[in-house]
Amino acid sequence: MRMRDTFIKPMHREGVRFVAIFAAVTVGLFLLSDVLGWIGIGLTIWCYYFFRDPERVSPARDGLIVSPADGVVSLVEAAVPPKELGLPDMPLTRISVFMSVFNCHINRTPIEGEVTAVAYRPGKFFNASLDKASADNERNSLRLRTANGQDLVVVQIAGLVARRIVCFVKQGDMMQTGERFGLIRFGSRLDVYLPDGVEPEVRVGQTMIAGETVLASLNVSETCR
Q1: Which one of 58, 67, 188, 217 is the catalytic residue?
Q2: pLDDT exceeds 70 at position 129
């Protein structure tokens, strides 16, 4: 890998207009003050970095569930999936990954499967790291059906400064593990509801890499590692 590739990542097309706006504002700031202009340059670079879209290599073993987002595990607990997906009213293990404004915000499919439902629900904008964000905040929920017939849920949740959930997929799409399915602007959270009986393999405070870090496995019957 070249040194340039370590620091300069591709940018997702969703970020083009935002970087253009930041750059235009920066030009105006330079007309007012060099100090303000350099601050504008810093913010423009941050905006570009926010929308970075690096390539990721997902693990190849069948049945692995990977993190849908970069960030830190903020919660691992039992919770009922969003009711709009039509799943039974039964608590499942929920793993929450909190993304700060400095994380890559491209969201990736946790496991290979068919999108059997996509449901958007408007809501509030509490801090995404809070437990009540799962129930009260704006969200977009996906239900995935794996090859062996198990259901897995992944939920995009808007945060305190996030005001736009973007989803690229629709019901009936077939997804590969680690494939891009959406993003959230700016700072937010992803919840993954594991199938019944599947144990998590991560802990609160652990750092996640979208599409690469393993959350759990459908094919392992051992106790939580």
Answers
A1: 188
A2: no
